[in-house]
Automatic annotation (TrEMBL), chain A:
Chief place where the protein resides: membrane
Bilayer topology term: Peripheral membrane protein
Nucleotide-binding as UniProt keyword: yes
Pfam families the record matches: ABC_tran
Cell location: Cell membrane
GO cellular component, one term: plasma membrane
Transmembrane segments: none
GO function terms (MF aspect): ATP binding; ATP hydrolysis activity
Protein name: ABC transporter ATP-binding protein
Similarity-based family: Belongs to the ABC transporter superfamily.
Keywords in alphabetical order: ATP-binding, Cell membrane, Membrane, Nucleotide-binding, Repeat, Sugar transport, Translocase, Transport
TrEMBL record, chain B:
Entry-linked CDD domains: TM_PBP1_transp_TpRbsC_like
Protein name: ABC transporter permease
Keyword tags: Cell membrane, Membrane, Transmembrane, Transmembrane helix
Upper classification of the organism: Bacteria, Pseudomonadati, Pseudomonadota, Alphaproteobacteria, Hyphomicrobiales
UniProt key word Cell inner membrane: no
One MF term in the entry's GO annotations: transmembrane transporter activity
InterPro entries membership: ABC_transp_permease (IPR001851)
UniProt subcellular location: Cell membrane
Transmembrane annotation, as ranges: 27-51, 77-96, 108-129, 135-154, 161-179, 211-229, 259-278, 298-321, 333-354
Principal place of residence: membrane
Record's bilayer topology term: Multi-pass membrane protein
A Pfam family reported for this protein in Swiss-Prot or TrEMBL: BPD_transp_2
Gene Ontology cellular-component terms listed: plasma membrane
Length: 514, 364
């Protein structure tokens, strides 16, 4: 390790109008390290990283990179200095191929297009070298989130990097994909590169990083070496209090059957079989988990239940009413809430305000509407109430929701769905991007809902999330439910096998029926 | 570690002061782009004339002052502004819902046809009934014409850009057919319809000027559409559908229904504009009743940033440019296409400035 820091951030200030995102932040990154950045939602992590990669210009302060003060006016200038960033929300053009996305925005597009074969070759070479499994001619829109992320990482490598910044790269990954990513980070460091990564998952931070910095309220409050801390200590540094990793919950007291699904079959948006005959029931006062490696039909199951995907056959009954194939509005009216997997696609409208986003489903119902007109006062009061209860970090309810930090957007979605006082809550990835303090809070809220007799179906790729609050866990594989387990950590291995498609007798399940 | 009060910062700025700051800065930002664009375009137009040997002051005098000579010339501007405001404000609604209705011209013609029909075939009604009936007919016909494109879109996913343009041609040809055939006033030398009965005419504001109450209707409707979009539940749904159809569906909004409503509103406004042209200005249907108001309306909405309230101003501006160019043509033989050039530059500047602003936003 060199004596002078590889990257030094000195007393940077950044405001967005009245909002202070960076409040004199200072940070040092050494060459060849993996440096993790932790902090609560809205602490200013993404903004800080955006300033390093030229997306956002600091108001005050200095960035010294490789011993030279730098001031990037655009991401391109940062890329030229071999700084690459993978953003919290991907920035790929969906209807272009991988290679085309890489060429995009490079000054010499024409020259590169002539050399498209070279581009393809280079992508293949890099993909092989780091086992990224990226095909240069694949269309972005056909790729899963995990694949898209590898495309983003490879894009940075393609441009040439010494410093790679990853903003919450594991939020959308399955545990397997996460393992792969952590290995990749190690490989990159072995090749002499430096990695900064942001995460809310303390275990992976402990596993992979060399040093860890904790941000709070726009400042770095502490930097520690991984040998001198543990997950508990980190949690305390972040939130300023002990975070009880174990939630207390009463024994399950399932009541009447609220949601029942009988032999549901549906296809994905691309027309492939996705859900192949699922039957399940969720009772009042219980939380049923659905575990599984992502891409095994969970997304389609969620969309079909909420009326966003046509059902081929089978029946969905909610509160005794057949809701199969009904329009979402009708399903919602039967006491159905849905925390969607993809918050940017379904959950929020980015350019609308927090207020407008909180009434997305109830825009024409009292008290938010009267005689066809929106009641701004009622909407404002309600939104302010949610902001306060869920501790959503924002300036006020009239702010664009797209300007909120990722975790705070998610908190608003959760708050909105719970506030609708549903009988049944469908959750697909509860805590995506939420910090550990807020996660604890959100889980407690879910347990409260359970206590008050709501039926909850929690689809998740995070086993911790499932173990923490579920009463029973169904395992989904290839569009079917392979088994049911109690939320017992002792049976983790069994769960893992089921998720890989192996039933109790450890034999491989046939992948296609018939 | 010292405990930091998370909520504390949220209360540093008092609510009211922030709201004011927000409103003012937003108003400034959103007005800056179109104003700058217009200034650039006007100076470019002036430069163009100057290069052709006209003095700069001449140009400004003629272009700006010329159109404001007297009450009559102001009346003429407002007369031209009427269809532009109506169409522009209507298109704001469609565009906010991400429906690219390029067919206002056709909808205007169909509205004019319906107005002519109601205005010529019925007789003996009082002006209090007949004149509004004519307007209603125009609006309904325009809405129906736009509704065809809307239906094709929601039913067969046919691009409204293509279908509305095709419907434009059909409407124009239909008009030609009618004024040369079934609706032709055989006593006239040129193809034109019979004259509307007096009771069907749109009342004038001052008896010796052509300006009719259409301008007031246009302004009231533009304000109403603004309130509709910003304050009503339905307007909210239209905006959500336009911004993120996936989220709209998730939230239980009927995307198709909202698309139909938005396109029909824009069609009704264009149809009403057509009715006013016939009932308020020409009192007969001609083949070329519109000098392209339907297309200019697109530019009006664009310059207004899809805000119906701002469409009143941008519609007025485009009408002024049009009048100015007519004056120019008469007094100094400057071809009238100049106004098209200037309008083109206004639109290009709006786009360029918006892009510029986007770049700034990214680098804040
Ligand atoms: N473009 C913007 N306009 C206004 N405020 C912004 C903008 N970008 C970020 N902010 C604000 O700056 C603060 C820090 O945001 P940032 O995205 O850096 O948080 P974060 O630490 O990445 O949080 P998370 O863990 O939720 O992703 C937040 O309060 C956010 O609302
Ligand atoms: Mg972030």
């Amino acid at each position: 390790m060199s004596s002078r820091p590889f990257l030094r951030i000195d007393n940077i200030h950044k405001r967005f109008g009245p909002i202070i995102a960076s409040d004199g932040v200072s940070l040092q990154i050494d060459e060849g390290e993996i440096h993790a950045l932790l902090g609560e939602n809205g602490a200013g992590k993404s903004v800080l990283m955006s300033m390093i990669c030229g997306m956002v210009r600091p108001d005050e302060g200095e960035i010294v990179y490789k011993g030279v003060p730098v001031r990037f006016n655009s991401p391109r200038e940062a890329i030229r200095q071999r700084i690459g960033m993978v953003h919290q929300h991907f920035m790929l053009v969906p209807n272009l191929t991988v290679a085309e996305n890489y060429i995009l925005g490079r000054g010499s597009a024409f020259r590169v297009i002539n050399d498209i074969d070279k581009v393809h070759a280079k992508i293949r070479e890099l993909s092989d070298r780091y086992a990224l499994d990226v095909r240069p001619d694949a269309l972005i829109e056909d790729l899963s989130v995990g694949e898209q992320q590898r495309v983003e990482i490879l894009k940075a490598l393609f441009n040439g990097i010494d410093l790679l910044i990853l903003d919450e790269p594991t939020a959308v990954l399955t545990p397997q994909e996460t393992d792969r990513l952590l290995t990749l980070m190690r490989d990159l460091v072995a090749d002499g590169k430096t990695v900064v990564f942001i995460s809310h998952k303390l275990d992976e931070v402990m596993r992979v990083s060399d040093r860890i910095s904790v941000m709070r309220d726009g400042r770095v409050v502490n930097t520690v070496s991984v040998d001198h801390t543990d997950a508990r200590g980190l949690a305390r540094m972040m939130v300023g209090r002990d975070v009880g990793m174990e939630l207390v919950r009463s024994a399950a007291a399932p009541g009447r059957l609220v949601l029942s699904v009988e032999n549901l079959i549906c296809r994905s948006e691309t027309g492939l079989p996705a859900v192949r005959g699922i039957s399940l029931g969720v009772h009042a006062g219980e939380i049923v988990g659905v575990a599984g490696v992502s891409g095994n039909g969970q997304s389609e199951l969620a969309l079909a239940l909420s009326g966003l995907l046509p059902v081929d056959s089978g029946r969905v009954v909610l509160n005794g009413k057949d809701i199969t194939g009904l329009a979402p509005a009708r399903i919602n009216a039967h006491g159905f809430s849905h925390i969607p997997e993809d918050r940017h696609k379904h959950g929020i409208v980015q350019s609308l305000s927090l207020s407008e986003n909180t009434i997305l489903q109830r825009y024409d119902q009292p008290p938010f509407a009267a005689r066809g007109m929106l009641s701004r006062r009622a909407i404002g009061t309600h939104t302010r109430d949610l902001i306060k209860r869920f501790r959503i970090k924002c300036h006020n309810e009239n702010q664009r929701i797209g300007d909120l930090s990722g975790g705070n957007q998610q908190k608003l979605v959760v708050a909105r769905e719970l506030a609708r006082n549903p009988d049944f809550i469908l959750v697909n990835q509860l805590a995506r991007g939420i910090d550990i303090g807020a996660m604890e809070f959100v889980m407690e809220e879910m347990l409260k809902q359970r206590e008050s007799g709501k039926a909850i179906l929690l689809i998740s790729t995070e086993l911790e999330e499932l173990f923490a609050i579920c009463d029973r866990i169904l395992v989904m594989f290839h569009g079917e439910i392979l088994g049911e387990l109690p939320p017992d950590r002792a049976r983790l291995e069994e769960l893992g096998l089921l998720m890989a498609g192996k039933t109790a007798d450890h034999s491989e399940q046939p992948t296609l029926a018939g | 570690m010292e405990q930091v009060n998370q909520g504390a910062r949220d209360h540093v700025y008092p609510q009211a002061a922030h709201a004011l700051y927000r409103t003012l800065s937003q108003a400034a930002i959103s007005a800056a782009t179109p104003i700058a664009a217009v200034l650039v375009a006007l100076s470019f137009g002036a430069a163009l004339l100057w290069l052709n040997g006209f003095t700069g002051t001449d140009v400004v005098t003629v272009m700006v002052m010329g159109s404001f000579q007297d009450a009559r010339s102001i009346g003429e501007i407002l007369l031209k502004a009427t269809p532009l405001i109506l169409i522009g404000a209507g298109l704001c609604v469609a565009f906010r819902c991400s429906i690219w209705n390029i067919g206002a011209e056709g909808q205007l013609y169909v509205g004019a046809i319906a107005a002519t029909f109601v205005g010529t075939s019925i007789d003996g009604l009082s002006v209090w009934i007949h004149a509004p009936l004519v307007m209603l007919a125009g609006a309904l016909a325009g809405a129906a014409w736009a509704g065809i494109a809307g239906y094709l879109k929601v039913r067969f996913q046919a691009s409204e850009i293509v279908t509305t343009i095709m419907l434009n041609y059909i409407a124009l040809i239909l008009t030609s057919y009618l004024v040369t055939g079934p609706m032709r006033d055989v006593s006239a030398a040129y193809p034109q319809s019979a004259r509307l009965v007096r009771e069907a005419w749109t009342p004038r504001i001052v008896s010796d000027m052509r300006l009719h109450i259409g301008i007031l209707v246009a302004i009231v409707l533009a304000v109403a559409l603004y309130i509709f979009l910003q304050r009503s539940s339905r307007g909210f749904a239209l905006r959500v559908v336009g911004l993120n159809p996936h989220a709209a569906r998730y939230a239980g909004m009927d995307v198709r229904r909202n698309v139909m409503i938005a396109i029909c509103i824009s069609g009704a406004m264009a149809g009403l504009a057509g009715a006013f042209e016939v009932a308020g200005v020409t009192h007969r249907l001609y083949q070329n009743i519109s000098p392209g108001y339907g297309f200019e309306g697109i530019a009006v909405a664009l310059l207004a940033n899809n805000n119906p309230l701002a469409a009143i101003l941008s519609g007025g501006l485009f009408a002024m440019l049009r009048s100015g160019s007519e004056v120019l043509q008469i007094t100094s033989q400057v071809p009238q296409v100049l106004v098209l050039v200037i309008q083109g530059i206004v639109i290009l500047s709006v786009v360029a400035f918006a892009k510029f602003r986007g770049m700034f936003a990214g680098l804040r």
